[in-house]
Amino acid sequence: IIDQVGAREILDSRGNPTVEVEVLLDDGTLTRAAVPSGASTGEHEAVELRDGGDRYNGKGVTKAVRGVLDELGPAVVGAGLDATEQRLVDQVLIDTDGTPDKGRLGANAILGVSLAVAKAAAQSADLDLYRYVGGPNARILPVPMMNIINGGEHADNGIDFQEFMIAPIGASTFKESLQWGAEVYHALKSVLHKQGLNTALGDEGGFAPDLPGTDAAIAVIGEAVEKAGFKFGTDIAIALDAASTEFFADGLYSLEGKKFSSDDLVPYYEKLVADFPIVSIEDAFAEDDWDGWAAVTTAIGDKVQLVGDDLFVTNPERLAHGIEKGIANALLVKVNQIGTLTETLDAVELAHFSNYKTMMSHRSGETEDTTIADLAVAVGSGQIKTGAPARSERVAKYNQLLRIEEGLGDAARYAGDAAFPRFSA
Ligand code: PGA
Ligand code: ZN
């Protein structure tokens, strides 16, 4: 039984405030969850409540914290629920807020309670979180999509695409995949250095060199992959997040100094996929450009994974609309886009039932909380993106996956290239 719910304001990896929630059960179990925060947030995400005013440039979360202490906590405790009743707990949270976008009390407040309750239930049952959420068959370790060049809203360079990730699809264990990723990361640093490029980092721990654009960024990664002794394409492939909503305005995409209509952008992606070993592209089109999304899915959806982030915002209703229209073939999963664990699991379930792949994801503003690592294994998504293999708020998740793999022993399976959609040749 949930006995007490506490909350406080802490800092995230960008130095902005975020919500941390603590839950105490009547058996003495005490757990804590911290909430992440995006920069390139989708218009249709659940609402993150910020204080406004001068304090922390308006980004304080004292109102969200008060909402936990004064309303969400008392509602959950008052309902007298067992922590294992996640769906009922999350419904109480949703009803207490009472708005469709969770804007009254804030998705940041609601998610903190939701995740802390799940952790409490797991800990009270003496189970790892991935085991508690995923059951006895949860054993698939995800491919880490490591973001090693940062652009877009996550860096001050001139690269329009937001994320250039390496996917070590040829590794045989998660542990090996992480080693490969770190080796390529260090090789990339020296490749950039030799070319006289900046090796300062962006928000997700990747380098932020001033390269002219997408092709140059992928080329320099290819060089680093080979320098580190791996085969580009078979050992290590590329995954991109264009985050194109950020360079879309008035019906046009502004990319590398040119303006593209939706129709013009399709051949741009066709060429990218033909030129480079790309296994996945996220947000190739903007969040409400359903027609552009449909066109790109028709054109290359049989060759590459197309992931909806700002498009679907982990929202089962938006995902259902996309599935109905045959748009994209994978879902990006961000717990704070929808605001409760239950709704997150519902979105993943819908995706998997509909033959869509799922990629568990961090936000660009993160904390030391590692919940998403466990969730990736729990739902068997086979893919996780949680930044570069550097910076503790990113590495914390990868390190948790090392522990999970070790704990599973012989039962562990590394997803490898089976994580991605199967394409006929
Ligand atoms: P965000 O970026 O956390 O800044 O929204 C991550 C993403 O777009 O996938
Ligand atoms: Zn994205």
Automatic annotation (TrEMBL):
InterPro entries in the cross-refs: Enolase, Enolase-like_C_sf, Enolase-like_N, Enolase_C, Enolase_CS, Enolase_N
Name the domain of life: Bacteria
Q: Tell me, what is an example of a GO biological process annotation in this record?
A: glycolytic process
- Cite the residue spans of the region called Disordered: 34-53
Q: Assign the protein's first listed, main location to one coarse class.
A: cytoplasm
Q: Which residues hold substrate? A: H154, E163, E282, D309, S361, H362, R363, S364, K385
Q: Kindly state one GO CC term assigned in the UniProt record.
A: extracellular region
Basic and acidic residues: compositionally biased ranges: 42-53
List the subcellular locations.
Cytoplasm; Secreted; Cell surface
EC assignment: 4.2.1.11
User: Which residues belong to any copy of the Enolase C-terminal TIM barrel domain?
Assistant: 138-422
**Listed pathway(s):** Carbohydrate degradation; glycolysis; pyruvate from D-glyceraldehyde 3-phosphate: step 4/5
NCBIfam families, per database record: eno
For this entry, the protein name equals: Enolase
Name of the gene this protein is made from? eno
